[in-house]
Amino acid sequence: MAPDGGHNGTEGWGQYLRYSLDSSKIRVNNSAYAGRSARTFTREGRFQRIIDEVKAGDWVVIEFGHNDGPGDPATDVKSRVDCPGIGNETCTAIFNNATEIVQTYTTYLRNASSIFLSLGAKVVISTSTPTNPYQTGNFTWTPRIYSWYSWYVVESLGGPAAGIYYVPHADYCVQALKLQGPQAAVAGYPMDNTHMAPKLADTFSQAFVLGLKCGTSPLQQYVVNATSRIEGPELGTCLPVNATLPI
Protein backbone atom coordinates (compact mmCIF):
# COMPACT_ATOMS: atom_id res chain seq x y z
CA MET A 1 0.00 0.00 0.00
CA ALA A 2 2.83 2.37 0.90
CA PRO A 3 4.54 4.67 -1.59
CA ASP A 4 7.73 3.12 -3.00
CA GLY A 5 6.70 -0.30 -1.67
CA GLY A 6 9.76 -2.12 -0.37
CA HIS A 7 12.06 0.13 -2.47
CA ASN A 8 14.28 -1.26 -5.25
CA GLY A 9 11.69 -0.53 -7.92
CA THR A 10 8.69 -1.97 -6.10
CA GLU A 11 5.53 0.00 -5.42
CA GLY A 12 2.53 0.01 -3.11
CA TRP A 13 -0.98 -0.43 -4.49
CA GLY A 14 -2.20 2.72 -2.74
CA GLN A 15 -0.33 4.82 -5.27
CA TYR A 16 -2.73 3.73 -8.01
CA LEU A 17 -6.03 4.06 -6.19
CA ARG A 18 -6.57 7.65 -7.32
CA TYR A 19 -6.88 6.52 -10.94
CA SER A 20 -10.03 4.55 -10.08
CA LEU A 21 -11.80 7.33 -8.19
CA ASP A 22 -13.52 10.49 -9.40
CA SER A 23 -10.82 13.13 -8.91
CA SER A 24 -13.40 15.92 -8.94
CA LYS A 25 -14.91 14.51 -5.74
CA ILE A 26 -12.17 12.47 -4.08
CA ARG A 27 -8.55 13.36 -3.31
CA VAL A 28 -6.44 10.39 -2.27
CA ASN A 29 -3.79 11.03 0.39
CA ASN A 30 -1.65 7.91 0.80
CA SER A 31 -0.30 8.06 4.35
CA ALA A 32 0.87 4.43 4.44
CA TYR A 33 4.51 3.88 5.38
CA ALA A 34 6.59 0.87 4.40
CA GLY A 35 7.59 -1.74 6.94
CA ARG A 36 5.08 -0.71 9.59
CA SER A 37 2.73 -2.82 11.66
CA ALA A 38 -0.36 -1.59 13.45
CA ARG A 39 1.86 -1.37 16.53
CA THR A 40 4.64 0.72 15.00
CA PHE A 41 2.20 2.91 13.06
CA THR A 42 0.61 3.73 16.41
CA ARG A 43 3.85 4.12 18.34
CA GLU A 44 5.35 6.47 15.76
CA GLY A 45 2.30 8.73 15.87
CA ARG A 46 1.28 8.03 12.28
CA PHE A 47 -2.34 7.30 13.19
CA GLN A 48 -2.34 10.50 15.22
CA ARG A 49 -1.17 12.56 12.24
CA ILE A 50 -4.12 11.29 10.23
CA ILE A 51 -6.47 11.93 13.15
CA ASP A 52 -5.21 15.50 13.30
CA GLU A 53 -6.12 16.05 9.64
CA VAL A 54 -9.29 14.02 9.12
CA LYS A 55 -12.60 15.81 8.70
CA ALA A 56 -16.21 14.70 8.85
CA GLY A 57 -17.13 13.05 5.56
CA ASP A 58 -13.61 11.76 4.90
CA TRP A 59 -12.86 8.10 4.24
CA VAL A 60 -9.97 6.28 5.92
CA VAL A 61 -8.71 3.01 4.43
CA ILE A 62 -6.67 0.89 6.86
CA GLU A 63 -4.64 -2.14 5.77
CA PHE A 64 -2.07 -3.96 7.90
CA GLY A 65 -0.95 -7.56 8.38
CA HIS A 66 2.40 -8.07 6.67
CA ASN A 67 4.54 -6.92 9.60
CA ASP A 68 2.28 -7.70 12.56
CA GLY A 69 3.40 -11.25 13.26
CA PRO A 70 3.41 -14.00 14.13
CA GLY A 71 6.00 -13.75 16.83
CA ASP A 72 6.74 -12.72 20.38
CA PRO A 73 7.01 -8.97 21.00
CA ALA A 74 9.59 -9.64 23.70
CA THR A 75 12.01 -11.23 21.22
CA ASP A 76 11.11 -9.45 17.98
CA VAL A 77 14.30 -7.68 16.92
CA LYS A 78 12.36 -5.22 14.72
CA SER A 79 10.03 -4.25 17.58
CA ARG A 80 6.91 -4.37 15.43
CA VAL A 81 5.09 -7.65 16.23
CA ASP A 82 1.73 -7.17 17.97
CA CYS A 83 0.62 -8.99 21.10
CA PRO A 84 -1.26 -12.20 20.20
CA GLY A 85 -5.01 -12.27 20.82
CA ILE A 86 -8.21 -10.57 19.75
CA GLY A 87 -9.10 -8.66 22.90
CA ASN A 88 -7.41 -6.46 25.47
CA GLU A 89 -4.43 -8.74 25.99
CA THR A 90 -1.12 -6.94 26.47
CA CYS A 91 2.51 -7.98 26.29
CA THR A 92 5.67 -6.22 27.39
CA ALA A 93 8.75 -5.56 25.30
CA ILE A 94 11.82 -3.37 25.50
CA PHE A 95 12.02 -0.57 22.95
CA ASN A 96 14.68 2.14 23.09
CA ASN A 97 15.73 0.89 26.53
CA ALA A 98 12.23 1.39 27.95
CA THR A 99 9.35 -0.98 28.62
CA GLU A 100 6.66 -0.85 25.95
CA ILE A 101 3.16 -2.14 26.61
CA VAL A 102 2.28 -3.95 23.40
CA GLN A 103 -1.38 -4.36 22.47
CA THR A 104 -3.15 -6.69 20.07
CA TYR A 105 -3.68 -6.07 16.36
CA THR A 106 -7.40 -5.71 16.99
CA THR A 107 -6.88 -3.18 19.77
CA TYR A 108 -4.69 -0.94 17.62
CA LEU A 109 -7.18 -1.01 14.74
CA ARG A 110 -10.20 -0.64 16.99
CA ASN A 111 -8.73 2.34 18.83
CA ALA A 112 -7.82 4.21 15.65
CA SER A 113 -11.07 3.35 13.88
CA SER A 114 -13.15 4.45 16.85
CA ILE A 115 -11.53 7.88 16.79
CA PHE A 116 -12.03 8.25 13.04
CA LEU A 117 -15.69 7.34 13.42
CA SER A 118 -16.12 9.78 16.31
CA LEU A 119 -14.78 12.55 14.06
CA GLY A 120 -17.42 11.83 11.45
CA ALA A 121 -15.20 9.91 9.04
CA LYS A 122 -16.06 6.52 7.60
CA VAL A 123 -13.60 3.64 7.70
CA VAL A 124 -12.70 0.76 5.39
CA ILE A 125 -10.57 -2.00 6.89
CA SER A 126 -8.93 -3.99 4.12
CA THR A 127 -7.02 -7.26 4.35
CA SER A 128 -3.36 -7.16 3.37
CA THR A 129 -2.10 -8.10 -0.07
CA PRO A 130 -0.94 -11.72 -0.36
CA THR A 131 2.55 -13.04 -0.67
CA ASN A 132 3.28 -14.87 -3.92
CA PRO A 133 0.95 -17.91 -3.98
CA TYR A 134 3.19 -19.59 -6.58
CA GLN A 135 6.41 -19.42 -4.57
CA THR A 136 6.48 -23.22 -4.05
CA GLY A 137 5.93 -23.85 -7.76
CA ASN A 138 2.26 -24.68 -7.33
CA PHE A 139 -0.60 -22.35 -6.52
CA THR A 140 -1.35 -22.41 -2.80
CA TRP A 141 -2.80 -19.79 -0.51
CA THR A 142 -4.36 -19.72 2.94
CA PRO A 143 -5.76 -16.49 4.40
CA ARG A 144 -3.73 -15.17 7.32
CA ILE A 145 -5.29 -14.76 10.75
CA TYR A 146 -5.09 -10.99 10.30
CA SER A 147 -7.79 -11.17 7.65
CA TRP A 148 -10.16 -12.56 10.23
CA TYR A 149 -8.95 -10.07 12.84
CA SER A 150 -9.72 -7.23 10.41
CA TRP A 151 -13.26 -8.48 9.85
CA TYR A 152 -13.67 -8.92 13.61
CA VAL A 153 -12.77 -5.28 14.24
CA VAL A 154 -15.36 -4.14 11.69
CA GLU A 155 -18.02 -6.37 13.21
CA SER A 156 -17.19 -5.37 16.80
CA LEU A 157 -17.51 -1.67 15.95
CA GLY A 158 -20.94 -2.08 14.40
CA GLY A 159 -20.19 -2.73 10.72
CA PRO A 160 -21.84 -0.76 7.92
CA ALA A 161 -24.56 0.61 10.21
CA ALA A 162 -21.81 2.38 12.15
CA GLY A 163 -19.94 3.57 9.06
CA ILE A 164 -17.16 0.99 9.05
CA TYR A 165 -16.69 -1.53 6.24
CA TYR A 166 -14.58 -4.58 5.39
CA VAL A 167 -12.94 -5.33 2.04
CA PRO A 168 -11.43 -8.83 1.61
CA HIS A 169 -8.66 -7.35 -0.53
CA ALA A 170 -6.38 -10.38 -0.21
CA ASP A 171 -9.05 -12.67 -1.66
CA TYR A 172 -9.48 -10.45 -4.71
CA CYS A 173 -5.71 -10.17 -5.22
CA VAL A 174 -5.35 -13.95 -5.06
CA GLN A 175 -8.20 -14.38 -7.52
CA ALA A 176 -6.38 -12.07 -9.96
CA LEU A 177 -3.07 -13.91 -9.52
CA LYS A 178 -4.71 -17.28 -10.09
CA LEU A 179 -6.32 -16.00 -13.29
CA GLN A 180 -3.12 -14.41 -14.60
CA GLY A 181 -0.92 -17.40 -13.79
CA PRO A 182 2.58 -18.07 -12.43
CA GLN A 183 4.46 -16.00 -15.01
CA ALA A 184 2.57 -12.89 -13.96
CA ALA A 185 3.41 -13.69 -10.34
CA VAL A 186 7.12 -14.13 -11.09
CA ALA A 187 7.20 -10.77 -12.85
CA GLY A 188 5.02 -9.20 -10.19
CA TYR A 189 7.27 -10.06 -7.25
CA PRO A 190 10.74 -9.08 -8.54
CA MET A 191 12.50 -8.53 -5.20
CA ASP A 192 10.96 -11.11 -2.89
CA ASN A 193 7.60 -12.83 -2.46
CA THR A 194 5.97 -9.84 -0.76
CA HIS A 195 6.78 -6.55 -2.49
CA MET A 196 5.21 -5.80 -5.85
CA ALA A 197 6.38 -4.49 -9.19
CA PRO A 198 4.39 -1.43 -10.31
CA LYS A 199 2.23 -3.44 -12.72
CA LEU A 200 1.15 -5.90 -10.03
CA ALA A 201 0.61 -3.04 -7.57
CA ASP A 202 -1.74 -1.50 -10.13
CA THR A 203 -3.54 -4.85 -10.48
CA PHE A 204 -3.90 -5.08 -6.71
CA SER A 205 -5.30 -1.55 -6.62
CA GLN A 206 -7.93 -2.61 -9.15
CA ALA A 207 -8.59 -5.73 -7.07
CA PHE A 208 -9.31 -3.50 -4.08
CA VAL A 209 -11.70 -1.43 -6.17
CA LEU A 210 -13.49 -4.58 -7.33
CA GLY A 211 -13.87 -5.67 -3.71
CA LEU A 212 -15.19 -2.22 -2.90
CA LYS A 213 -17.70 -2.31 -5.75
CA CYS A 214 -18.86 -5.79 -4.77
CA GLY A 215 -19.59 -4.65 -1.20
CA THR A 216 -21.94 -2.10 0.31
CA SER A 217 -19.64 0.81 1.12
CA PRO A 218 -20.88 4.18 -0.19
CA LEU A 219 -17.28 4.89 -1.20
CA GLN A 220 -18.01 2.79 -4.28
CA GLN A 221 -20.13 5.62 -5.70
CA TYR A 222 -16.90 7.49 -6.45
CA VAL A 223 -15.39 4.66 -8.51
CA VAL A 224 -15.19 5.78 -12.13
CA ASN A 225 -15.91 2.33 -13.61
CA ALA A 226 -19.01 0.23 -13.14
CA THR A 227 -18.51 -3.22 -11.63
CA SER A 228 -19.16 -4.79 -15.03
CA ARG A 229 -16.22 -2.84 -16.46
CA ILE A 230 -13.86 -3.93 -13.68
CA GLU A 231 -14.73 -7.62 -13.75
CA GLY A 232 -13.03 -9.71 -16.38
CA PRO A 233 -10.39 -12.31 -17.23
CA GLU A 234 -7.60 -10.50 -15.34
CA LEU A 235 -9.41 -9.61 -12.10
CA GLY A 236 -12.32 -12.04 -11.92
CA THR A 237 -15.78 -11.37 -10.53
CA CYS A 238 -17.46 -10.63 -7.22
CA LEU A 239 -16.63 -13.33 -4.66
CA PRO A 240 -19.19 -15.18 -2.53
CA VAL A 241 -17.63 -13.66 0.61
CA ASN A 242 -19.27 -10.37 -0.34
CA ALA A 243 -22.69 -11.97 0.02
CA THR A 244 -21.99 -13.50 3.43
CA LEU A 245 -20.17 -10.80 5.42
CA PRO A 246 -21.37 -7.37 6.59
CA ILE A 247 -19.17 -5.42 4.23
UniProtKB/TrEMBL annotation:
Keywords: Hydrolase. It holds the Pfam family Lipase_GDSL. GO terms for molecular function: hydrolase activity, acting on ester bonds. The keyword Coiled coil does not apply. It comes from the Eukaryota. Gene3D superfamilies: SGNH hydrolase (3.40.50.1110). Transmembrane segments: none annotated. Belongs to the 'GDSL' lipolytic enzyme family. This is Rhamnogalacturonan acetylesterase.
